[in-house]
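User: Can you recover a sequence for this backbone? Please restate the input before giving your answer.

Assistant: Of course. Working from this structure:
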């Protein structure tokens, strides 16, 4: 058994499906955020374009998997939720195509993933969003007021 197999087995035995889905969406969303930051460079650098395309394709594959999962016999999610996931999956596929052709909005893909993450684990998502906001906030000599912007 490889270490990867052992890791996967441990995750399946210790993490709930919601935790696994949350973690996967977090990873793919981070890749999309990095891709968004590099979009301008991607126009002139094939290696950067490959990274952007990898992130977009990975996100699309994740959503294809979600759609496939909710369509399997025995899926216990309510019918309305399964239908909503299928609709989102179709939208993600279309939006991904638009992004790759330069007409879509990668931020919209990121926002959908974050919204689903909040639904999977609201407390954890809020905590992580606050940590990201604090890490990316500009350093200042004092507390900023609303009027200082």
């Amino acid at each position: 058994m490889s270490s990867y197999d052992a890791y996967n087995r441990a995750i399946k035995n210790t993490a709930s499906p919601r935790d696994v889905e949350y973690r996967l969406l977090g990873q793919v969303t981070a890749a999309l955020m990095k891709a968004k930051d590099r979009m301008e460079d991607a126009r002139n650098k094939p290696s950067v374009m490959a990274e952007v395309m990898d992130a977009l394709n990975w996100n699309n594959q994740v959503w294809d998997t979600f759609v496939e999962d909710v369509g399997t016999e025995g899926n216990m999610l309510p019918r309305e939720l399964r239908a909503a996931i299928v609709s989102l999956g179709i939208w993600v596929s279309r939006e991904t195509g638009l992004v790759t052709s330069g007409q879509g909005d990668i931020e919209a893909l990121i926002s959908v993933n974050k919204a689903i993450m909040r639904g999977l684990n609201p407390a954890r998502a809020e905590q992580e969003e606050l940590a990201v906001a604090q890490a990316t906030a500009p350093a200042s000599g004092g507390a900023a007021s609303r009027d200082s912007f």
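That completes the design. The domain at 11-119 is CATH 1.20.120 (Four Helix Bundle (Hemerythrin (Met), subunit A)).
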